Amino acid sequence: MYQERASRLTGAVVWTNTPSAGPRAGRVLPDGCMDLLWHEGRLLVAGPDTRAYRTDGAGARAGVRFFPGTAPAFLGLPASEVRDRRADLADLWPAARARRTAARVDAAADPASGLEEVALALAADAGPPDPLLRRIVTALDAGRPVAATADELGVGARLLHRRALTAFGYGPKTLARVLRLQRALRLARDGMPLAETAVTAGYADQPHLAREVRDLAGATLGQLLGGG
């Protein structure tokens, strides 16, 4: 059973996923985020995905999902280094630091609480997040074109692309596609007709929405809405 709650870290979400009837494969959709996660005693970093990530459903999991663009400053690594990966924290950090972090999670009442404490400490050490990154997310999530976003933020297209690679793991056009997919799913799950969902979310039409869903999610919209 999957559960989530708002974290004490601004913009982050704390989640747990405990199999209730044996292992069942799952699908994690691209959302522009990175996670610090625990899986059967291992600490991993889930990088930003460009395609759906399939899980085997085995074992309990817990994680902290960071607001898009914030995790690289907390973790001390560019998002592009872990794009489309689930990497052991011990392979990304010095061994002693990774061990101390694992021990902190193990000492907590539960892995989710331990991960949240780690995330709060990382954020405190990193200092205030770069406000430009949130402005990029806000503009693209509102459906603003990439070129218009660069102009509005007063940055060149090349600088925007470099900043996006470091913070989000991919360029602003891919981030815009991912955010648009999530926008469409929210509308469809709220009961909006699919043709209206497509236009409202920023697609040319319903077939365009269907192609993008299959490309990014590896499934049809009907399968996603039905939990398949």
From TrEMBL:
PROSITE patterns attached to this UniProt entry: HTH_ARAC_FAMILY_1 (PS00041), HTH_ARAC_FAMILY_2 (PS01124)
Record keyword Amino-acid biosynthesis present: no
Any Pfam family hit: DUF6597
Domain HTH araC/xylS-type: 130-227
Cited SMART domains: HTH_ARAC
Origin: domain of life: Bacteria
UniProt KW keywords: DNA-binding, Transcription, Transcription regulation
InterPro entries: AraC_XylS_family_regulators, DUF6597, HTH_AraC, HTH_AraC-typ_CS
Name of the featured protein: Helix-turn-helix domain-containing protein
Organism: Streptomyces cinereospinus
